[in-house]
Amino acid sequence: MYLIISGTNRRGSYTLRIAELYQSLLREKNIQAPVLSLVDLNVLERNPSILQLEKDLLIPATKFLFISPEYNGSIPGVLKCLIDITDYKKVWMGKKALLTGVSRGRAGNLRGMDHLTGILHYIRMVVHPNKLPISIVDTLFDQDGMGHEETLSMVNTQLDEFIDF
Q: Which residues contact 74 (CB under 8 A, 6 or more apart)?
């Protein structure tokens, strides 16, 4: 099972729009992948909603797609807290990850993807080498959605590689 994690708790974020784009492209490839939004998720304690999330989505997933915005040169604290609060041996260990960085700037969260890679390696996840930085994300969408063909092509290539990974 695939799971897409929109790595921020900000409402109306481009991160969620990119996560939904990935979901749509996977659906075109006959792969169902729910999107986990961190909006309104309490990740500060192991509470009943975290336990249910583990049971329903995190533990069954074998391939994770992390869509992470750049926050202060790294990843959002809410994403790190999600990783920290869960049972890492059941949820993350030995599973595969794909990383996509999102930013309004020019680096596409390259540094944050490096930080996330280190965290995921520490909890013994296997990270796909094609980490895609999506820069100036606020200019890539039009009224119909993602209108930037080069970005769509790179995302499709990344997804095809991850499916075979």
A: 111, 112, 115
Structure tokens at 89: 């041996």
| Contact predicate 156/25, CB 8 Å | yes
What gap in Å lies between CA 48 and CA 34, rounded to an integer? 20
What are the residue boundaries of the structural domains of the chain, listed by start?
A: 2-164
Query: How do residues 109-125 score in pLDDT, each as one tens digit?
Result: 999 999 999 999 999 99
Give the predicted TM-score (pTM) of the model.
0.96
The CATH code of domain 2-164 reads: 3.40.50.360
Residues in contact with 66: Cβ distance below 8 Å, sequence separation at least 6, in sequence order: 5, 7, 79, 97, 98, 99, 100, 116
* pLDDT tens per residue, range 36-52: 999 999 999 999 999 99
